[in-house]
Structure formats: C-alpha cells, structure tokens
Amino acid sequence: MALIGLVRVSTDKQNTQRQHDALDPICLKVIEEKASGKLATSDRPDLLTALSYIREGDLLTVQEVDRLGRNLLEGLIVLNDLFQQGIGVKVLEGIGAGEHTERSFILDLALALAEDRRRDIVRKTKNGLETARKQGKVGGRRPVVDDDKRAAILDRRRRGESIRTIAAGVKVSVGVVHKTLAAAAEGNLTDQPPTP
C-alpha cells in the first residue's frame, strides 16, 4: 500500500509549505495543485495526475478533507470516484481524520463543513467590499485620468483635435479619451470614468 499525497491551494498567493510538511515525509509521491476546490474532477488536471499514480489498495492522502473539494457535491463525487476504483483516502488532520475506503457520515459532515466555510469566506469578502464602498473606498486600479489630464483632454477637444491626436498628446489610450469626453457630456466629472 502506497500513500500518494495531494496538496491543493486555490491561488498562487497561498502557501503550500504546511501541507508539504505533513505529506512529504510519508508519501511516495506528492502532487501539488493550484486550482479551486469547487471545480469538477475533470477540470483539475493535477488531481487527475495524482489519481493516475494510484493503484488499487493505495491511499490518496490529504492534510484535511477540504483539500478534495470546497463544495459538498464535488467532494462527494471525488470520494465516490475514488472508492469505486478501490482507492482509499487518508485524511491526516481535522474532521474526518483517518483512513477511509467507503463513504461515511464523518466524511460527509467534513465536506459539508468545508462548503459552509467557503460560503462564509465569500459572504465576508462581499460584506467587506460593500462596507468599504459605503465609506468611499474604491478598490481596483487607480484612475488613469487626473484633473490635469482631464482638463487637457477637454481643452484639446474644444479646439477641435481628433480623439487619436488627443490620446497621443496626453499620453492616454483612445478609450480613456472617449470615457473622459462621455463623462463630461453627462456632467459626471469624478476622477473615475463611468462604468458601462
């Protein structure tokens, strides 16, 4: 019986070291995956690579059960696929810790909690962004057009210059000139061009 490890993070900015520290010493091979756990198994090439190494009787090993999937349905589908192939799952930590060769209530519960945790993160992120907007804080890229550039764009247009000439002269894109002129025509002269 061999242990094949799966390390999963959702983004490149997340650190995998803690998972590697747990899996590297005990696994024959460890596959690292940078993909959302809510994707279907078929859309997770690194998970498929890990599964290709596993033979009957082997165990796919994860640090916590939510590494299989953050979505209850997707996690259960992954587990069912594994169990039908005779592949067990070893969970090292958290709810569901242990070796599993068939579905169990504890695994179902652990996956449900993982999905709930993901929903909670999404909700808190949306609430935080909404609160920031109410306080006048705007995320995203800084405006390309400051007051000086806006004045130059409007002045050059009044003098009859073409949009391309204005863009080249003020060193902004043609799109920025269009948005600035449209905002001025609508009476919206904020730093941020209107969104479509």
TrEMBL record:
Keyword DNA-binding (UniProt): yes
Domain Resolvase/invertase-type recombinase catalytic: 2-136
Single Gene Ontology MF annotation: DNA strand exchange activity
Native organism: Nonomuraea dietziae
Recorded superkingdom: Bacteria
PANTHER family: DNA-INVERTASE FROM LAMBDOID PROPHAGE (PTHR30461), SERINE RECOMBINASE PINE-RELATED (PTHR30461:SF2)
Keywords carried by this UniProt record: DNA recombination, DNA-binding
Family annotation (PROSITE patterns): RECOMBINASES_3
Keyword Repeat listed: no
Protein name: DNA invertase Pin-like site-specific DNA recombinase
